TrEMBL record:
It catalyses: 2'-phospho-[ligated tRNA] + NAD(+) = mature tRNA + ADP-alpha-D-ribose 1'',2''-cyclic phosphate + nicotinamide. The keyword Ligase does not apply. It comes from Hippocampus comes. This is 2'-phosphotransferase. Its EC number is 2.7.1.160.
Length: 231
């Protein structure tokens, strides 16, 4: 092989190595994000982590857990800063300055003070509709039973479909069913809604923890082709 050929092979190898390192770092960040989501939303008690009333945990306590010992503070800060759904929030403790982290929503653990903003009828931030993402395999049962918060403390809604302006969170990108909720109608019946820190619309539903189908304004199959579904 000529010198120029050897150089081309070396350049290709370097590029593959760089892509591999970037991919490995991205995979590692995804694993950290998922592990933090579980710890801060669901598993803190079993892991021996103390959640404050507003859902915060000291970052140093998280990093001391066995599943986080390969990570450093800079890893946590990077994942929080780059998370496309803004799932987490960092802050210095108001009294001692130690760094804390919390999940902005999605808890099955009871958190009494998530700093949620109530939605009021007729207010500028009261949407005419909000969207819950699900899957077509669930559509029949949703029509019969409504939406349920299941084990979580809230039903999650987005202000629009993924990729629309201002929509960063509230439904998974792989959902193939979008159910639109008439928010003013539900508010008029006493169902409460709240905005989370990362602009997810949350509701506890009715006394049974559900949003009945009477509040559905429309439903759309998103994939493989868009199709308006009969309610």
């Amino acid at each position: 092989m000529t010198l120029s050929g050897l150089k081309m092979e070396s350049d290709r190898g370097n590029r593959r190595g760089q892509r591999g390192r970037r991919g490995g770092e991205e995979d590692r960040d995804v694993r950290l994000s998922k592990s933090m989501s579980y710890a801060l939303r669901h598993g803190a008690t079993q892991m021996g982590l103390h959640l404050s009333s507003d859902g915060y945990v000291f970052v140093e306590d998280v990093l001391a857990c066995p599943q986080f010992r390969s990570y450093k503070l800079e890893d946590v800060e990077r994942v929080v800063a780059t998370n496309d759904k803004q799932r987490f929030k960092l802050r210095p403790h108001p009294e001692n300055g130690r760094l804390q982290i919390r999940a902005n929503q999605g808890h099955t653990i009871q958190v009494t003070d998530l700093e949620l903003k109530p939605v009021l009828t007729g207010s500028p931030d009261c949407p005419a509709e909000a969207v819950h993402g699900s899957y077509m395999r669930n559509w029949s049962s949703i029509q019969e039973q409504g939406l349920s918060r299941m084990r979580r403390t809230h039903i999650h809604l987005a202000p629009g479909l993924p990729q629309e302006d201002g929509v960063i969170s509230g439904m998974r990108k792989d959902c193939d069913l979008a159910i639109f909720i008439d928010v003013p109608k539900a508010l008029a019946d006493g169902i409460e809604f709240f905005w989370s820190e990362n602009r997810v619309l949350l509701t506890t539903g009715n006394i049974e923890g559900k949003l009945p189908a009477t509040y559905f304004s429309r439903a759309i199959q998103l994939r493989p082709t868009r199709w308006i579904l009969p309610l």
